[in-house]
Amino acid sequence: MSFLFDTTSDELQLEDSASASEPSFDCAPRSVASNPGSSRRSFFKMTVGGAVAGLVTATGIEFAAPRRVMAQSGLTSDAALQELMDGNRRFSTGNLTSFEHDLAMLKQKTVDKQEPFAAVLSCADSRVPVELLFDQTIGHIFVTRVAGNFAATEIIASLEYGAAVLGTKVILVLGHSNCGAVKATIQAKEVPGQISSLFSYIQPAVDQAGPNLEAATKANAKIQAALLRQSSTVISGLVKENKLKVVAGYYDLGTGVVSLLE
Ligand SMILES: [Zn+2]
């Protein structure tokens, strides 16, 4: 049985309910299963957030019922991507749930194994805290980082491990606004040490999109995602089998919103 995919948000309840064939989880979230009052608080919180109120009415979902939580093995690539985007919506609207998770339980369940549902290739930029901006916690996201979020050999190897061995269902290549690595590549100035070694990976995006920082950053994310799909036989094989999805995204530092580019 796979590691639980826990969240105290009610959004997954809605998505779960639409996929009856998915396996049930092995550990009920304490906040709902053991405390209906907590569930109601969560419901009210979401209603205030305005994210699901309409769906509740439309589907008649019973929020007091114990929630099922998706296990990684039962997730489709689309569902994994949706969970990332839902988490980012919780983050950008100030409705974080990941801190409500029982961290002691998470640690206990992840000491001997990990089954992250998603991988993210992000920039090293300190303003892009990956788990936080997707409202995820321990064991959920396999993160690789390098300034400029490009698919160097070691990054590809790491993401192959994440997909082939750990079973990640989606790889998100995440560029971000005001990226210093892309900016430096555009400027092509003299830089100290080995910093310029980053530039050759990012240059194709600048060649394609021109000197506009946002355009070049978005082009870079898309180029790196395409590279992952094409240059790795492991990743391309899983993509062909519909077991894995590779997408590009763009994180806006000012709004906290991640948008998909493809
Ligand atoms: Zn950056």
As a whole number of angstroms, the C-alpha radius of gyration is 19 Å
**Largest sheet, described in full?**
5 strands, mixed
Give the number of helices: 12
Bulk shape: globular
CATH superfamily of the largest domain, by name, is Carbonic anhydrase
CATH fold name of the largest domain, please?
A: Beta-carbonic Anhydrase, Chain A
* Cofactors and ligands: zinc ion
Structure notes:
α9 (180-187) packs across α10. The chain is globular and about 50 Å long. The chain folds into 2 domains: 1-74, no CATH class; 75-260, Beta-carbonic Anhydrase, Chain A (3-Layer(aba) Sandwich). It has 262 residues and is of the alpha/beta class. The protein is built from 12 helices and 5 strands. A 5-stranded mixed sheet has the order 2-1-3-4-5, with helices on both faces. The chain has helices at 11-17, 30-33, 36-49, 53-59, 77-92, 103-110, 130-133, 153-165, 180-187, 199-209, 213-231, 233-240, and strands spanning 118-122, 141-145, 170-176, 245-251, 258-260. α7 links the parallel β1 and β2 (141-145). It starts with 10 loop residues before the first helix and ends with a strand. The chain binds zinc ion. Zinc ion binds at residues 123, 125, 147, 176, 179-181.
Structure keywords:
262 residues; alpha/beta; Beta-carbonic Anhydrase, Chain A; 2 domains; five-stranded mixed β-sheet; 5 strands; disordered N terminus; binds zinc ion
Quick recap:
The protein has 262 residues and is of the alpha/beta class. 45% of the residues lie in helices and 10% in strands. The protein folds into two domains: 1-74, no CATH class; 75-260, Carbonic anhydrase (Beta-carbonic Anhydrase, Chain A, 3-Layer(aba) Sandwich).
